Amino acid sequence: MKNNLYLWSLILSLVLSFQTELYSQFSPGDLSNAHSNLEGMSNCFKCHTAGDKVPNSKCLDCHTQIQNLQNNGRGYHSNSEVTSKNCITCHSEHHGRNFQLIRFDSKNFDHNKTGYKLTGKHESLKCESCHQSKNIANADLKKKGKTFLGLEKNCASCHSDIHSGTLGKECQNCHSVEGFVPVKGFDHNKAAFVLTGAHKRVDCSKCHRTEKINGKDVKVFKGISFFSCQSCHKDIHEGKFGADCTSCHNTESFSQVRMANFDHGKTAFPLLGAHTKVKCSSCHGDNLLSKPKHELCTDCHSDYHSGEFTEGEIVKNCAECHSINSFSPSNFTIEKHNKIRFPLLGAHLATPCTNCHLQEEKWKFKKTEISCISCHTDFHGEELSKKYMPGDECQACHNNMSWNTVKFDHNLTGFNLLGVHSKLECKSCHFNQESNKFLFASVSGTCKSCHNDVHLGQFESDKNENVCTDCHSFENWQPSKFSHQNTKFPLTGAHSKLECSKCHKTGKIENKEVVIYKIENFLCASCHY
Q1: Residue 41 to residues 50, 60, 71, 297, 523: CA-CA distances in angstroms?
Q2: Which long-range contacts (CB under 8 A, 24 or more apart) does 247-251 make?
């Protein structure tokens, strides 16, 4: 039994040794990295056949992309010079792992053999400019990364279609490989809209505008409406002469108009009033076919008001005041006046127009100042702050019905009228008898500006001009707000029962008798002996 095991072990060793020796004898070297999975005696017939080396059919069984290209007659491998060769002529094997199966001189490569001849600007491009994975549609080939297979012949495979498919896929119908622009291949005379007359001189962009298609700005060339002139041109007649512009005009020049039986009443400017008596040449000049400006009266008539009613560069319609029958009299009514920035109200209704609008022998209307002081003298002069006359308007106090009717919110001055003050007439504080004028700005808000200081300055304070209000209210002159407890000498005990005159004696200040309230010495001996 042991002898049999030894014999079988010896036979197995000899067989293995023979197989290794045999493989070394038949294999000329290691396969490249791309075919390394085919190493070994058991894989030889995947590429080789008995009595032959490597037939093309074996290669194409694996390289189906090349087989498909040849079947479709596309690409370099379908060229007759290439198909007549064996694959191993260019792609030989058994030269080691790092051997490059695909190698050729790109600078001297004949691109014509691919079936796509490089012409025009394509001649100067580098190979990698076109042969990029992003330009390959086939998913399997795209995964290979660096490859020269898989490119299509159509322009869109490398170039973005700036027309977004609106003009089809045959770019060469208009463009050439010499340059994208100018578009030498396009003949507008072969289009559905043949260019004649002035249309030949129009820039393409005037008709072929840019639109958003799929989120991109696209110049639209196809599908543009041209069945009527209004498709591109605005009908300045607004349909008054019908839709057939050719009944009067032609493509050579818009101004070439057939004038037979012309009805001016159908134009944008029917002749009415005094205009019916005007000669044609007065408006049209020597060329009766011309179209004079007529939107504004000043297109023909001089502006009597010298631009006073001009807004920007446009003069407002004169018909607001005048009629086509006669320039005068004006038809600008009080009702119209009341709709503008200065309505005529109250006493202004009885004021003649000349009082405001005839200045220095010149009529002024829109440029007439409308502030009160532009017509009325400011009676108050410097006595009234501009804060109470915003925009030089007197309406804060007066109205246009009667100058003597005054309504004013005294709280706006910061001096609120309280107590007895609210019952006084304005002139009690604001009228000066000597100057016979009303005073406002020069009137101080302090108590002593109107009232005599009976204390002769005993309570004057730099911190409070109206120190009187510490003791007195606006209801009466009694010291109802005074509390002795808030002074330097609070009254306690028997002191709280004493009459004021017991301590506050009459004295003199500036040779005037006055009750002395501010006592500086609080010692007991000052009052008690």
Answers
A1: 13, 21, 32, 106, 135
A2: 250/197, 251/196, 251/197, 251/198, 251/199
Tell me what pLDDT residue 194 has.
92
Q: Round to whole Å and give the CA distance between 248 and 303.
A: 34
Rounded to whole angstroms, the Cα distance separating 471 from 461 reads 14
Q: For 396-450, how does the pLDDT look when each residue is reduced to its tens digit (9 = 90+)?
A: 888 888 888 888 888 888 888 898 998 888 888 888 888 888 888 888 888 888 8
The Cα 212–Cα 210 span in angstroms is: 7
Rounded mean pLDDT, 483-502: 89
- Cβ–Cβ < 8 Å for 306, 300: no
- Residues 96-109 have a mean pLDDT of 88
Q: Which residues contact 342 (CB under 8 A, 6 or more apart)?
A: 370
pLDDT band at 22 (very low <50, low <70, confident <90, very high): very low
Query: From CA 62, how far away is CA 60, in angstroms rounded?
Result: 5
Q: Please give the mean pLDDT across all residues of the chain.
A: 84
Q: What is the DSSP letter of 430?
A: H
Structural domain boundaries in the chain: 29-117, 173-219, 372-443, 448-527
CA dihedral 78, 80, 82, 85 (to 10 degrees): 130
Residue 178: partners with Cβ closer than 8 Å, 6 or more residues away: 120, 121, 184
Q: Which helix (H) or strand (E) holds 428?
A: helix 427-430
- Whether the pLDDT of residue 455 is over 60: the answer is yes
Q: Reduce the secondary structure of 122-136 to three states and give it as a string.
A: HHHCCHHHHCCHHHC
Task: Write down the pLDDT at residue 313.
Answer: 61
Model confidence band, residue 476 (pLDDT cutoffs 50, 70, 90): confident
Amino acid present at 184:
K
Strand partners, 219: 210
Q: Which residues are CB-contacts of 161 (< 8 A; sequence separation ≥ 6)? A: 155, 169, 171
Q: Which amino acid is at 512?
A: K
pTM over 0.70: no
Contacts 24+ apart (CB under 8 A), 297-302: 297/322
Distance (Å, whole) CA 297 – CA 4: 132
515: part of which helix (H) or strand (E)?
Answer: strand 512-515
Structure confidence at residue 51 (pLDDT): 67
